[in-house]
Design goal:
It is built from two helices and three strands. By secondary structure, the chain is an alpha+beta fold. The radius of gyration is 15 Å and the shape is globular.
Length: 77
């Protein structure tokens, strides 16, 4: 559901070196001021949520890392 279906839906390749790593135990409050996009509007501001994207890899190379992941992986990438 999280990999094959979106790939088919959006016509993405089946490259197994493209993946995202989540920390399902991470808890945090949604803060629109921390959004990378210019759009800051959300009905979920202030909500406490679980599960955080830690890293995204394309062709096995990191294209986005959460600050926590940068610290952990700094000597490996």
């Amino acid at each position: 559901l999280m990999t094959s279906s979106p790939r088919k839906r959006f016509g993405l390749s089946e490259n197994l070196n493209d993946f995202t790593v989540y920390d399902l135990n991470a808890r945090y409050n949604i803060n629109p001021d921390e959004f990378l996009s210019m759009g800051k509007s959300t009905p979920f501001a202030g909500w406490r949520v679980y599960g955080k994207c830690m890293a995204t890899f394309l062709d096995g190379k990191p294209v986005w890392l959460a600050p926590e992941a940068r610290e952990i992986l700094k000597d490996r990438i």
